[in-house]
Queue: 4 jobs
Job 1
Amino acid sequence: MLTKAPRGTGDILPGEVEKWQYLEEQFKKLCRDYNYKEIRTPIFEHTELFVRSVGEDTDIVGKEMYTFLDKGDRSITLRPEGTAPTVRAYLQHKLYGQAQPVKLFYYGPMFRYDRPQAGRFRQFHQWGVEVFGSREPLLDAEVISLAVAFFNSVGIEGLILELNSVGCSKCRPSYREEIRKYIAGYRDSLCLDCSRRLETNPMRILDCKEKNCKEITNNIPEMTGHLCEECREHFKEVVESLEAIKVSYRINPRLVRGLDYYTRTAFEIIDPQLGAQNSLGGGGRYDDLVEVCGGNTTPAVGFAIGLERALLALKSKSIEDLYQEKPGVFVAALGNKAGMEGLKMVTELRHEGIKAEKDYLHRSLKAQMKQADRINARYVIIMGEEELEKGKVLLRDMKEGHQREVTKKEITAHLKEKMGR
RNA sequence: GUGAGUGUAGCUCAGGAGGUUAGAGCACCAGAUUGUGGCUCUGGGGGCCGUGGGUUCGAGUCCCAUCACUCACCCCA
């Protein structure tokens, strides 16, 4: 236990972390181009925030939250998602007073108490964007296109964008009733979860993977046919906008997201090559959430992408494809006196922006050469007693395999020129 | 929370239906003309056999429990 990370968590080690850095850079760059500003919120919040916003009947709130009492008897929850905290911050700092719409992005760890499996962890990382203050369908298209652009920019291919409209507080209740009525006759044939859903959230039955439930719901009228005038128009324009900017999509009338706050647009990006957890990201519109959290009516739309899953989809790509190790210089010093000179040398080189390393284990020259080779050193500076007495060092080109004497004074300038800096 | 599978060296794995000091490859360290990398050769260090019980003269091997990992269900990123 002492030497084991808790279940569902893990360390990101050198060799793997470079991939993370690569994805993080790409995402930040993209957000800058789309004019989104970063926001950083705490990784824990008052439990109430998630219960109210994500929804009492959702799996996240019902069974997946890391909740505890702090020493002041406050109920605290490690954030299971990023939208609610962003909404909270938006209201707390009165960001509605800024130029509209407010376009934000975030990145960080999220926590859900779930049984781990491929692509699912208890601590995982998401990044997402949230836009407040516009109900324009064109904005939905922008948000979706940003998610799609990210996957394109890092070379993840073969994804499917699924799209649906889940209606609004005006048209959804009647659709819910419709489902209830339709299914009432089949009540006994439903799976256990679904008979519960019939009461709590009938729309989720559409999403059930049980064979029986699927058959029952097969002929249920679709949500898209029950949208109110405004929602239907909105959905139509989202679709048209996506076509206008050439984002391909697939309408899935059964797409129902697991968080209660979604209205109208709901979408998910799926990698069919992945296992059971194949959703790389998803999001949608949540026009009522800000109000639920105590603010004025403020339409909003956003998405979240799972980093671990993006990495899974990227698996085929090797680190070398994404990340080039900076070539450097290895200083091989022989003997104690030379060792000190070696330290001075690497310090000087580093100050010049050249990657430099030396030996700290009093190893033989042979071993030091091996080390130099391993860290991909382009040059090795060999300093022995003899050379130092003459004020000179040996400069070895590891790639060409030859070496020559250079005076110690001019070595830095020399390398600076050679290493292109 | 439910189900199935798997836990032997840093990594990937061997260990015939229980029997001596638990092996290999890779990695690591050292040496092969005591100042020169990659290739090769030689040697070396490393293992509470996940943990705890039990059966047995004897358990890495059989039984039970437990923990962890993996995959799936549920749900989602």
Job 2
Amino acid sequence: MSEPTKDQKIWQVVAAIPPGCVVSYGQVAAMAGLGRQARYIGRALGKLPAGHDIPWFRVIRSNGQIAFPQGSDAYETQVGRLKSEGVEVTNGRVQMRQFQWQP
DNA sequence: TTGGTGACTAATC
DNA sequence: GGATTAGCCACCA
């Protein structure tokens, strides 16, 4: 493993998100060097291995909404974890506390 | 190779 | 503020 795959790069970026902060898929894509490939982020998160330490719940849409339909399992999990970190979530909307990415 | 697909985004109504 | 449309681009069968 000399060259990390894009998926791993994404996971690394997501793992670098500090607690209490959230970022949009587009932001993660830019951080990982994927440009506008925001859709790939969701796919990479869906390929997360078991036992990971990736706070995927800190990744939301650009408009500050959860990427899942309200009432779904993943949705409630994400909201629960965000609230646990001090992030306010109301009506499927997240209080956008984006952080400055330091390359 | 081709075509279908998506945890997206921005613009428009 | 919510719903719809079109654009985008890498991955997978």
Job 3
Amino acid sequence: MAANSRLTVATHALAWLALAHRRGHEVLTSEQVAASVKSNAVIIRRSLGDLRRAGLVEVRHGAGAGWRLARAPEEITLLQVHDAVDARPPFALHHSEPNLECPVGRGIRPALSGVYGRVEGAMRRELAGATVADVLRETLTS
Amino acid sequence: MAANSRLTVATHALAWLALAHRRGHEVLTSEQVAASVKSNAVIIRRSLGDLRRAGLVEVRHGAGAGWRLARAPEEITLLQVHDAVDARPPFALHHSEPNLECPVGRGIRPALSGVYGRVEGAMRRELAGATVADVLRETLTS
DNA sequence: CCTCGCTGCAACAGTTTCTGTTACACCCTG
DNA sequence: CAGGGTGTAACAGAAACTGTTGCAGCGAGG
């Protein structure tokens, strides 16, 4: 159960907010979003809270409270969503520092950091090329 | 401690095998590799076992046992290493199936799979562009 | 002003994954 | 055939994520 579904949950929530708004619902509550994702309302609030801190959604308190997008779905990329909810890199270096008396142990960390940085850059470029509007459009055609 | 350092450990082991071979050591034992990585010999045997099943290293049993590369370090890409030791994708879909009565819940999984597949493809292309020889060269220049 | 619905957040349990450790059977070179 | 090293299973500990409960706080509307 430990695999990262945060980007999935957050994107699902955003797409649902976008569709509901288009259908005339001003806001959705975390319960309503949780019903579509089939998850817990607290999980959804945690995720939407991250998105709020990143400026991607807005929240309304009091009676008639709920969430809505803070900007058009065409202007929210999955990279922004990823950075908002999950900042963990795909690869980690050594847990304990390698043996510095070995030439490989001494120099391998910067060498691997370079490779990992390029991999992460490629990943980010791909995520930046997809928006919530793209996902929603593809979602509705299937 | 749960972050994935498997690709790091395996690449470190391969680079060390390559350098030791160049220096005249026919094979290295898992203890010798563990001394450079500063990890446990069993961890190294697990990692090298994965690489052996992928055909990237060879093992010799009996007295004078140990490990060596099965091919030139220029012909081992980090993508092969990654596939040998760690087949887990960076993003997961929903843990429990979303609500199929919601239009978003119904269609979002294939939509996200498409995006995630493109991201993974970009990652794999980048990993395929770096070899153990590249990493070793960069390691020794720092 | 007060009520009520929803958010915000802390605390905790359960699951999974990964590293590390011990133990032991097995293999094969010398 | 002896001994060093591999192969593998079993288990402990740490970390991350999801899920759950509980409760304080906010504010729109009566």
Job 4
Amino acid sequence: MRLPSPTSGEASRLMDSLRIRDTFFSYFEGVAHRRVPSASLIPSGDATLLFTNAGMVPFKDAFLGSEAPPSSRCVSIQRCVRAGGKHNDLDRVGFTRRHHTFFEMMGNFSFGDYFKKEAISFAWEFLTKRVGLSPEVLWVTVYTEDDEAEALWKSVTSIHPSRIVRLGEKDNFWQMGNTGPCGPCSEILVDQGPAFSCGRPTCAVGCDCDRYLEIWNLVFMQYDRNEAGILLPLPRPSIDTGMGLERLSSVLQGVESNFETDLFMPLMEKIGSLSRTPYGKGKGEKDFAYRVIADHIRASYFLIWEGLVPSNEGRGYVLRRFIRRAVQFGLDLALPNPFLPALGEKFVEMMRGPYPELLGGRDRVAAILAEEEERFIRTLEYGLPLVREAMAESRRRGSMTLSGESLFWLYDTHGIPVDVVLDWVRPEGFSLDLEGFEARMGEQKEQGRRSWVGQKSSFPVSASLLTRPVTFVGYDRLDAEGEILVLVHGANSVEKVSEGEEVEVVSGVSPFYPEGGGQVGDRGVITGPTGEISVESVYRPYPGWISHRGRVRTGTLSIGEPVRLSVDPSWRRGARIHHTATHLLHAALRKVLGDHVRQAGSLVLPDRLRFDFTHGEPLTPLQIERIETLVNDWIATGEAVRISEKSRQEALAGGALAFFGEKYGDRVRVVEVPGMSVELCGGTHVRELSEIGLLYVLSESGVAAGTRRIEALAGSAAYGQGKKWREELSAIRGFLRAPGGRILDRLESDEKARETLEQELRATKSHLFEVETAGMLGESFQAGDIRILVAAVDCRDGRDLRLRMDILKSRIPSGIIILAGRTEGQVLLLGWASQDLEKRFPVNSWIRKMAAALGGKGGGRPTWAEGGGVPPSSWPVFLDTVRAEIREEAMRTLVGS
RNA sequence: GGGGGGUUAGCUCAGUUGGGAGAGCGUCAGGAUCGCACCCUGAAGGUCAGGGGUUCAAAUCCCCUACCCUCCA
């Protein structure tokens, strides 16, 4: 029940999400906005961000001013993933009406173009005129100090003044980080009626409950916060807005939760048909499971489609958690495994309208989903016995509660979620110490956090210090003239650096390639009027920056000085050879193995390369051979490498491989070897393939499930390796005296000969020991009722001694045997007592005593003991002494018993 | 990036204060059978992941490396 009805126009009563998208785009295009396609979920060049989590993320550099926006007015519907953080704990997803890991954010943006007035009026007009929301249900909030915004709401819209509420910094002030652009914001809310209220008397706008639903946030970026925390006015204030497509859909479709919109219902129905129980639309006992699964398949599908694979770290790990959580909740609904591929197929069907490109790669995504699902099921199967063992252990302690420690162990070490454990142990009457578990979990998190902040070294200079980005000239030149703009020593920005110091240098121009795209940063030297720095690594501390890290070799350098920057040509040469070789390798892999192969990471160094790619199984030697041959055939053509800048659409249409998509950027750099490989790439490359020379694949191995790794050498590194192999081979030939080949035959026959010899040696030894020990039996004597043998033999190692012992003890069914093995400079002692003498005559104490007499140690069990020491001055004396003592002891125990 | 667990026969895994490397399945041979499966007897098969250290003695304890599983960031 909802009063009053939020929508006023009949036409919009049943607005499906597709129409909402169209209406949104066409409205803003109508007011001169440029439509920008959704950027990748995986942010490019931003290590601080796990996923694109808001509509403004692709525009971050544009807001910071380090990059030009596609237009001063833009509109987008950006796909987003949130997987943690204060407002979106993964655990809450599925248990509320509105939390998602994957969602789409509709937004309009102004980069120094229009400001508050237009932003407010566009939003109002869109909501009330285009999608027909009734002004009666709308509320707005403004920042407590923002008089301007409140006045504008009153003057440019028809909202009732009593529906404008002022809120504080927590709700209505937005900032990107601790420094940088920020500003007040203004939110538009829909009053869903008292039925949605938490019922508390204090319930009003700002309350956490569902009654006042925030649907659109308008951010007025008008300040730049500097390091001191002071707000300085931005010269060109900007607008960033965000409205969740899922929320707006739920309002416009008159349903109670996002999960009942057309963005979810087909998935809910599919889950319902698989589990044979329909979704209860919020009233079913297990509805939460439907919601979790539907939500997670959306996020997982998109992430995999964008080239991510489940793994045990970083983004891949978040993806793994999505998939595993979905599978886990699938258990609650008794869904038959694997069920994720079928849901994925349904999702593509739903989303093919707005995202036609999703149709490509369907098989690959389905395969990855299925594999991860099966993998988790295996983990659970493996875990069941462990849980049983934990229960048994608890029972032994007389407790029917599994301890927090063992719950943590099951989860942390073996990946078995607590909920799953609970399901298994509840029927047995067990409960769980959840508090103990949470406590251990907290420690773990704290530890992770500490190690994280501990190693994070932040660049000590603000990103806004540079008014324009550093010009990279390294594609064409290896030398450049520049001026020192920033110097860093230790954790501080400094004016001057001198000999021996570790420093970082930023200059306005640089030919140094900064580490990125898998390619290592350049090395070289920076020379000033009075000093020189050797550059050891180069990276981008912020987008658009290039920082050179190294050590001052001679003299001093100061801010403002002119410098000459020179890249080490042989370093760069090795890097570009290996980089182009990587592209060829990638293309060859796809050709030989299939189009499911995608780059999953790469490392390009001057003297080797490493390439990770998606492929389900190990490569056969034949496949590796074919790939290597193909690449070398390509190299031999000597084809020219073409590098060009194109529009993204044009590049993709030309078949370019693009992974981990860029941002909205229209201009992309395309590296093409005609007929062989086309990739979007910012790295440095050879001009002609002949420069590569040759390529050797060194190894192929697995890095994670579904990901393989190839390591290879190209150019002079490959030649050097070939030379090394040749030298080794000739050394082996010389050693084996097998010149001219047939080394394998030679090894084989040698191996056979060795085996024969070993067998013969074994036979001879056992014969020898038979004879030898037969003689030794004569040395044995009877002491009371015990048969005793103490003897010394020459032997090579303990193994020989044991062989003799085995023979001897089979001849003496009851008794004591002590053998002293004389080896080079050492004595090994071995003692045996038959089972019946275990208590009465434990041989380990004798071995210990003898070893001590020989200046060594020993020990063991009563029936079998070993020890060692240095040889006695006289063997006969030593042995006789031992015999006498043992005899005496034997007689005494006889009397005693 | 930081933890936890693992790596022993072809496979699945035991191996308890450090003291003789094991089981089941599989393989092979023999027996039994018209034949097959079952069954009986026996055998082969191991750099205990690799390297270093401690020790008289290391699968076992310590350190390093590689790989696999898993958690946290």
